[in-house]
Q: What sequence folds into this?
C-alpha cells in the first residue's frame, strides 16, 4: 500500500472536443473517479490535485459578460477559488458515490488552497500564460483602457481574434494550508487540494497574505503539495501514456524510464514542450530532488498499470 499524490490533467474533467456542459463534465469526472477507486481498492491512499484551464477560461468569459448586466467581475485569484470549489465538488460527489457502492467508508474533502508566490518572480515582468477569450485588435485596445493592469498580447499570426490576455505564471513557493492538509491526509481523509495550481497569493511586509492576478502551473503546485503530504509516488495523469523524445516527429520515441540527469538533459534539449509536458517533467525532477522516490507520468486509463510498473514514463533518482 502506497500514498499516491495524483495530479489530474484537463482531460479528466473535459475532453478537448466537448463544450463543457454539466453533463459532460460530470460524466468525465465519474469515469476519472472510477479509475481512482481502482487504486483505492488496491489499498492505496490518494491525495488529489487537478487542472482548471477550460473551467477558469469559461468563468472569465462569464465575468466579462456580466459587466454589461451590472455584475462586478471577480479577479483571477477568486476565479481560481471558484473552480476549486466547482471541480472539488464534482470529484467529491462522484468519489463518494462510487466508494459507497464498494462499501468503503472513506471521507473525501476539498481544501480551498492558497499557494504562495513571490512578487519578484520574473514572470511578473513578462507575463507568459494566456487566459480567457480571444479578442480582435479593437476589443484588445478597449479592454486595455478599461483594465489598466491588463497585458494583452497577439498570440496567433494573422488577423481577427488573435489577441489574448496574458498573466504571470510564477513559480509556486509553498502551500499555505499545508498543516491542515497534512493533518487531514494523516487522518485518512482523501483530500483534494491545490486545484488549478492553487490560489496565487503574495506575502505583504506585515506578513499578511493577499491574492494576486496570476495562474500557477498545476503540476508545479502539485509538487509543492507532494512536499507537504510526502507521498511514495507522485503520479501525473494526462492524455498521453508516456512522455516522448522527439515528440510529434517521425522518429518520436516513448520514454519508459529516465533518471533525474537524463530528464534534465532531455528538457534542455527541448523534448518537452514548455506549456504542457515541460512543467510535468520539471515537477517530477523537483519531487525527486526534494527526496521523493518515484514519479510517473502516464494517461488516466493506464494509472493502475503504471503503478504496477507495466507502462508510463518513470522518473527515478540518479
Ligand atoms: P494536462 O491537462 O494533462 O496538463 P497538457 O496538454 O498540459 O495536459 O499536457 C499533455 C500534452 O503534452 C500532451 O497531450 C502532448 O500533446 C504534450 N506534449 C508535449 N511534449 C510532449 C512529449 N515530449 N511527450 C509527450 N507529450 C508531449
Ligand atoms: Mg497542463
A:
Amino acid at each position: 500500500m502506497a500514498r499516491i499524490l495524483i495530479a489530474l490533467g484537463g482531460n479528466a474533467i473535459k475532453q478537448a472536443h466537448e463544450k463543457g456542459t454539466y453533463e459532460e463534465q460530470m460524466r468525465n469526472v465519474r469515469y476519472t473517479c472510477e479509475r481512482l477507486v481502482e487504486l483505492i481498492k488496491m489499498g492505496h491512499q490518494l491525495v488529489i490535485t487537478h487542472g482548471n484551464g477550460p473551467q477558469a477560461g469559461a468563468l472569465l468569459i462569464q465575468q466579462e459578460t456580466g459587466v454589461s448586466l451590472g455584475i462586478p467581475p471577480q479577479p483571477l485569484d477568486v476565479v481560481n477559488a471558484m473552480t476549486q470549489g466547482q471541480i472539488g465538488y464534482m470529484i467529491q460527489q462522484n468519489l463518494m458515490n462510487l466508494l459507497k457502492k464498494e462499501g468503503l467508508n472513506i471521507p473525501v474533502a476539498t481544501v480551498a488552497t492558497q499557494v504562495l508566490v513571490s512578487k519578484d518572480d520574473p514572470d511578473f515582468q513578462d507575463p507568459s500564460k494566456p487566459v480567457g477569450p480571444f479578442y480582435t485588435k479593437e476589443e484588445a485596445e478597449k479592454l486595455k483602457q478599461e483594465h489598466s493592469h491588463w497585458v494583452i498580447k497577439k498570440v496567433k499570426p494573422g488577423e481577427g481574434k488573435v489577441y489574448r490576455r496574458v498573466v504571470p505564471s510564477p513559480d509556486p513557493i509553498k502551500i499555505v494550508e499545508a498543516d491542515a492538509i497534512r493533518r487531514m491526509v494523516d487522518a485518512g481523509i482523501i483530500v483534494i487540494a491545490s486545484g488549478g495550481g492553487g490560489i496565487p497569493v503574495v506575502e505583504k511586509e506585515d506578513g499578511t497574505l493577499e491574492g494576486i492576478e496570476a495562474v500557477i502551473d498545476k503540476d508545479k503546485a502539485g509538487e509543492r503539495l507532494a512536499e507537504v503530504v510526502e507521498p511514495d509516488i507522485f503520479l501525473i495523469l494526462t492524455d498521453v501514456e508516456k512522455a516522448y523524445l522527439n515528440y510529434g516527429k517521425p522518429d518520436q520515441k516513448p520514454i519508459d524510464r529516465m533518471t533525474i540527469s537524463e530528464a534534465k538533459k532531455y528538457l534542455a534539449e527541448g523534448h518537452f514542450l514548455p506549456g504542457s509536458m515541460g512543467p510535468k517533467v520539471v515537477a517530477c525532477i523537483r519531487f525527486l530532488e526534494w527526496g521523493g522516490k518515484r514519479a510517473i507520468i502516464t494517461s488516466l486509463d493506464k494509472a493502475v498499470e503504471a503503478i504496477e510498473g507495466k507502462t508510463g514514463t518513470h522518473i527515478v533518482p540518479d
